[in-house]
Amino acid sequence: MTETETMTAVESPAEAIVIPSAEPVVADSPPASELEKSRTKEDNTSIKKSSPESSPLARLLKSPSALDGFILHLSRVIQTRQGTDTVLLFTTYAARLVGAILEILGRTTLRHSAQKVVEMAFKLPPSSSVVLSTVTAPPLATLALNLSKNIQGFTNMMGEWRTMNRFWGVIGTYFEARDLILRLRGEMVDEKGEKVPAPNRVNIAFMTVQILCNFIYNFGEGACWLTCKGATNLSEKTSAKLGLLAARSWSVWVALELVRLLIERARRTPSGDITTEEEWKMDWKANFLGTLPWMPLSAHWGTEQGLMPEIAVAAIATWPATVMMKNLWRKTA
What we know:
Blueprint: E1 6-11, E2 15-20, H1 32-49, H2 56-62, H3 66-77, H4 81-123, H5 139-166, H6 169-185, H7 201-228, H8 236-267, H9 274-291, H10 294-301, H11 310-331
Antiparallel strand pairs: 1-2
Protein name: Peroxin 11C
Organism: Fusarium austroamericanum
Region (Disordered): 20-58
């Protein structure tokens, strides 16, 4: 990641989004904190009013349920656009992984069933005939394939949702470029009103190229998606090229980020404080391992035919998506 405080998430075909970490989302319901305060007041009131003779069932009905707590927690998670995108990312790839597994199981069962039919046919006398129309597919295989098809439709819808959400990523890229310019001019200040020092030459080079990659990505993916929806006059060939350009620019961004992190570790001078060093190592490891899985995925999406099967893509992407979801869930506890 660049030195500005941003969060990055990715999704197929090569989706990158740079979102200011504190950017709000318009809530459709009261803030979770208000809901929790209201719930706490109600619980306290109900406890005071309840008599010692009240039944366990009555006390259970008056207490907040686990589902209610989960919904309140989820409401806190999606209060920011970055939080919403993380939930969508995790849901999409977890579902894609399940769908890919079901498809493999269903097709494997069908092949195994077909092999049995062929073996039985060869065992019949030469004068016998086999009517294939009477052979039915195994019910479990049919169920698995139907579920896989339904999941694919669901994940396609989730992918479009994330694509529309990523359109706002160009604003995050703009602020990233703006912050870099202000730091170079010495005009950027932190929350305490102190000037933020300009980055060194190495980081300036990395940040500049990564910002350009993000702008290319935002333009390419947006043009490709809008063309698919009939919102532009671009040809399918041109939109496909722009989509590949966006994917490859994202691949360059990921590669640069990995190299930047390695250089940062090699050039770092230990502070001497054991606690500080341990925290830095943990943060660096989390950033590196969180970025690493997107390298093969971005390379896969940057080719016309792809490099990996669906189950490999889903499995690799589910890893960082799960880590991001766990971290976000813990921070909003």
